[in-house]
Specification:
The protein is mostly helical. It is built from 17 helices and three strands. The radius of gyration is 49 Å and the shape is rod-shaped.
Length: 474
Amino acid sequence: MEPFVAIAASVLPQILRHLAGAGGQAQHDAVAQAVTGIVQSVTRASDPDAARQKIASDPNAEAELRVRLSELASSLDDAQRTANATADNNALQDLEQRITAQLGNLSQQVDAAKQAQLRATDESARQAEDASTARSTLAQIASPSSPSVLAAPILSLVVVLGFFGALAFIISGRFDPTSDTAKLQIVNIVIGALTAGFATVLNFWLGSSQGSKNKDLANFSLQHIQALQAGRAQAAARVGADTEAPSPAAPKAPPASPATPPPAVVPAFVPSPSAPPAAPVVQARAPVAGAPSASTADKDAAFQACVALVLKNEGGFVDDPDDPGGATNMGITIGTLRAWRGQPVTVEDVRTLSQQEARAIYRANYWNPLKCDELPLGVDMVVFDFGVNAGIRRSAMTLQQVVGVAQDGIIGPETLAAVAKSAPAEVVDRFGTARLAYYKALRDWPEFGKGWTDREAESQSEARALMSQSVATA
């Protein structure tokens, strides 16, 4: 391990996580170089031993090094979150493309089924039309005005007259069966045909038990076939109507404030009645895109003004057995202090926590991730205070909601550009409204609503004071 990196790890062990998690040798070397540069800059020493002695003998240098390393770690975390968000977006786009392809295939299958059903419907309609045409033809033939209506009586009369004429001829004795064998065969054939024709005429006009039964069965079969055809036609019509995709209803506009709170629970607090400490005088920061960045002294003065309000509201040392966070001092829990120092801590360590270290923790854990150095005066106050109270992600999303950008919980160039285009006073007012709406959606509002409202009002008042001060010094 490089000596300057080892010095940095002794002050802020979390920095090793970024070195170990680097995506490649080049990224690892870049992080190590940045860490080395910070250590050399703070200690003003190019020799590792001299730098180590400077850290050991100068608590202020150690605190400054921890802050600088925390800022580097925060920027690396932001870069990692951005990379993860990009990867997630790519995965979502790939999933969307696959879903679109599947929907296209399903649409084709639905269209094919619809076309097949339409063809079946057309075939059923054609068959029904053919049956209707056949019935119409039979009805026309059976009509009294049709010439063909006389065909059956005439043919029946011919058959009957032929049958009885042949019978009379045979009975009259004018035919000798023994005279000519060939003629006898012809007469037998004619008589057989006339007999069959006569029987057919009798069945046609008078009917028989078997003939009536066959006619009834034929009628029943015809009615059943017609009913089936009608049922298939109706079913096809219903299927065709069902396959038509309905027009989607227009989506409703989202509510202005969340209907349900996020999983994170805002901790309860009771504002101290004591007057807040005097805020340092802060020079104005230009809230427009492309303006020169504020000096380090101006940024530190803005942070000191904002953290003073937070320290007042968070109160002093508390060790409540019912508090799952454990011992707390100036809003810093024992778990937060343990993670900050990178080593086990005791309740006594929390009790003796200095304001200087508490301010360093607030700067590294809240001020820097929320990009408060790049926010206009007043806006940084409300964003920072709400971030401490409800979490940096909730505060960032609230600011993004106010300025009208995507609410991803990460304050980046797009959010900062939108803030720069807005009037700081308007952003502060709208942020306060959104903050109260968030509180009111929480189930603990009836119990802690007054304290939350007082804290929001005080944050608004301090923010306006900072804005007025910046205007006066501009």
